[in-house]
Amino acid sequence: MKSNVRPDAMERITTKELADKFIEEQVAEVRAQVGDKKVLLALSGGVDSSVVAALLIKAIGKQLVCVHVNHGLMRKGESEQVIEVFGKELDANLIYIDATDRFLDLLKDVAEPEKKRKIIGGEFIKVFDEEAAKLEGIDFLAQGTIYPDILESDGVKAHHNVGGLPEDMEMELVEPVKLLYKDEVRVVGSALGLPDEMVYRQPFPGPGLGVRCLGAITRDRLHALREADVILREEFDNCGLAGKVWQYFIAVPDMKSVGVKNDKRYEGWPAIIRAVNTTDAMTATIEEIPYEVLHKITNRITTEVEGINRVLLDLTPKPVGTIEWE
Ligand code: XMP
Hints:
- With 326 residues, the protein is an alpha/beta fold.
- It is built from 10 helices and 10 strands.
- The chain has helices at residues 16-34, 47-60, 78-89, 100-107, 113-134, 147-152, 182-191, 196-199, 219-239, 291-304; strands spanning 38-42, 64-70, 93-98, 138-142, 172-174, 247-251, 257-261, 264-277, 285-286, 308-313.
- The chain has a 5-stranded parallel sheet with strand order 3-2-1-4-5, sandwiched between helices. Strands 6, 7, 8, 9 and 10 form a 5-stranded mixed sheet that branches.
- A hairpin with a 7-residue loop joins strand 8 (264-277) and strand 9.
- The longest helix has 22 residues, at 113-134.
- The two termini are 37 Å apart.
- The protein binds xanthosine-5'-monophosphate.
């Protein structure tokens, strides 16, 4: 797929049949492009890179080398899922790098949000580059570019693209889903057999929990955030909000308040719940969460998560608040 412009006549992929046809065409196209050469892919576990990985595994099997960099800022269970689905079930050629210490050491004492983003983005490229340099005979770089990325590449979202890859990599690009919209990528992912949990995942920023562990990140507060976040996700799953709300997460500020736990004074951080709906992330409205769900989440987080003693609800639309806190 050479052109970056979606032809007017291109049918929207809405069914399994259409997805199967697309997959068949792309498999042939990728095989023709790549031949017997190797292809490298940074596999974050997000929808786009996962679908590209599954598609390329189908097309060229072990000629695809997937590199998953765990920057230590993933949500609970995410890296494990990448290993399970791609390393085990799909038997991919997967290199897993746990770079948690590298990232957290660099981020130590850094409180400024854009500086944090730069460090995370820069280090990601470094780790990936180092890994690529160890591999021999790689001629192609696969990317999970989708059509909105092409349309928006000069727009407002550009400043967010910190998880990008080095521009000076001398490899030809393989971008099999670059003319697809997000909903089509999901249909293709399902047709390829990827689990719903992966295909219908909510958007997750490249710097991950790094921009939700507000201010200077510490390991204990990051741990508390990760545990609170998984409780929020579980309870949204339980009450059916998970499939309905566009983005929902916890942010934990670098601030403590006084509380009581087991009859003792207990200083802890607050967990802030944010649940928003949007179509393009430029503006967002607040999802109304039923009170009984909020009570349950509050109860679970304050009893199950070490270090958290209050739960707050963020009711701010965008504008005036951005979706993320940093
Ligand atoms: P804001 O906070 O600007 O977020 O309202 C809009 C959307 O972008 C996501 N976001 C990011 N995504 N790298 C990303 O890949 C980033 O640095 C980043 N910051 C925000 C945010 O989660 C929301 O979906």
